[in-house]
Design brief:
Elements lengths: L1 E4 L15 E6 L10 E7 L6 E5 L8 H4 L16 E5 L13 H14 L7 E5 L1 H12 L7 E4 L7 H20 L2 H16 L2 H7 L14 H14 L4 H11 L13 E6 L7 H10 L4 E6 L7 H4 L1 H11 L1
Parallel strand pairs: 4-5, 4-6, 6-7, 7-8, 8-9
Antiparallel strand pairs: 1-2, 2-3, 3-5
Helix pairs in contact: 2-3, 4-5, 4-8, 5-7
Length: 317
């Protein structure tokens, strides 16, 4: 295993506990179609209890960057108290096949083996990361002492699969027509409508378009275009296809998950509605806590209401 500090222009002293160390881990032979290795990071003091933090499909291996309020000084995942592990998700760079969340859990186990950790203190995942945490709990029950799954269920809701199917068709059409980035931007805009709530849009924007042109600008449309363009700067169309389909390959058997688990959801989540989380909580084999929170932000609650998430996670840890 090769550990390397984050690159800097100047020579610096040894990194403090809160500075991440990036490294690569060779993937098992069964995951070779998704690359030779996976990138991960460690933040925090050696010997401290290890927390695994995983987010949505656009998250990378640096949790303190993409999850402020939950990961960072004074938060539930405090790098002064815990050692924090993040991992890039494996994917097919050609966008032709999709790993399952179970495959991601297997890659995660390879990372744990490489750093010499038999059991993490907790695996904490939100959205896609929550699916991976649940898969870890079923297929590798001894690798994490407890699980936190936020806005994630045992299997996708049919309506959520339908939305993602449309997104993948849009991106595939763009790839075939030579305008993949615009297609990915549109697909991301469609996704944002499922992540957020009608109430938030009504609070933030005016409806309607300006002028008589059929593609006249609108406030919500400009917002979605901006979010879509930002997404294309950190996600390739092919990687998106692979990871989007991976979400729809997710399936775990709650009766085979005995690890103590905290489930957190938003009452306004369109992708993982509360009724699904209630059914999951009733089906898990081990001790479970369910917390359903009122939120304006729907599926994106784990990012937008980070302080409340941090309080719940911190109490569970």
């Amino acid at each position: 295993m090769r550990l390397s500090h984050v690159q800097s222009r100047y020579a610096e002293p040894a990194p403090r506990a809160a500075e991440p160390r990036l490294f690569e881990v060779k993937l098992p032979a069964g995951l070779a179609r998704f690359g030779a290795s996976v990138r991960a990071s460690l933040t925090g003091p050696e010997g401290a209890p290890l927390l695994i933090l995983l987010g949505g499909i656009s998250a990378d291996c640096l949790p303190c960057s993409w999850w402020p309020g939950v990961a960072g000084p004074g938060c539930a995942a405090d790098p002064e108290r815990f050692r924090i592990l993040g991992m890039d998700f494996i994917a097919d760079r050609f966008g032709e096949v999709a790993p399952s969340p179970r495959d991601q859990a297997a890659a995660l186990c390879a990372v744990l083996d490489a750093i010499g950790v038999r059991q993490a203190h907790a695996a904490i995942g939100a959205s896609y990361g929550g699916m991976i945490a649940l898969a870890l709990g079923q297929h590798h029950p001894n690798r994490a002492a407890r699980l936190v799954a936020i806005s994630a269920d045992a299997r996708p809701h049919p309506a959520a699969t339908a939305i993602r199917d449309l997104q993948r068709r849009i991106v595939a059409l763009g790839l075939a027509g030579g305008d993949a980035e615009e297609a990915l931007s549109i697909a991301r805009g469609l996704a944002m409508l499922s992540y957020r709530t009608r109430e938030e849009f009504a609070e933030r924007f005016e409806g309607g378009i300006g002028g008589e042109g059929v593609l006249g600008r609108s406030e919500p449309g400009a917002y979605l275009r901006n979010r879509g363009e930002a997404f294309t700067r950190r996600m390739s169309p092919e990687r998106f296809l692979s990871l989007s389909a991976s979400i729809d390959r997710h399936q775990v058997d709650p009766a085979r998950i005995a690890v103590p688990t905290l489930l957190i959801g938003a009452d306004s989540d369109q992708l993982v509605p509360p009724v699904q989380l209630e059914a999951l909580a009733a089906s898990l084999a081990g001790p479970v806590q369910l917390r359903l929170l009122p939120s304006l932000y729907g599926h994106d609650m784990f990012l937008k209401d980070a302080d409340r998430i941090s309080a719940l996670v911190g109490a569970f840890l």
